[in-house]
Amino acid sequence: MGWLASWRDRADVLRAETLALYLAVRDRRTPWYAKALAALVVLYAVSPIDLIPDFIPFLGSLDDLILVPLGIIVAIKLVPEPVMADCRMRAAHMSMQMGKTKAVAALVVLVWLALAALTIWLVWRALR
Fold this sequence. Notes:
Blueprint lengths: L1 H25 L5 H15 L12 H20 L2 H47 L1
Helix pairs in contact: 1-2, 1-3, 1-4, 2-3
């Protein structure tokens, strides 16, 4: 299962780099050509439409495994290092905030599910 953790770690890095590139696109210090390529890479990474449809065996995942990481690497090389470092820090901060938000959202969902279960149980008991 070590290989699975390794792939999961790589996916987390790609996710973080994609968010950092998104922030770099919005940064005024990023050159226009880097913004253009980074915007295309970010849009492709988050788009549900792929160059090669996912339902094609093996080839469907090829673009996600090769094109997206290569695009991220090239786009990062075009963004000035100080800008990229700043965007990585902001992306890490945003990710931590999103993690807290997800935890709160999960708690709210659990409370609603508990209330729904209690309501169903009370109605069922009253009708019995």
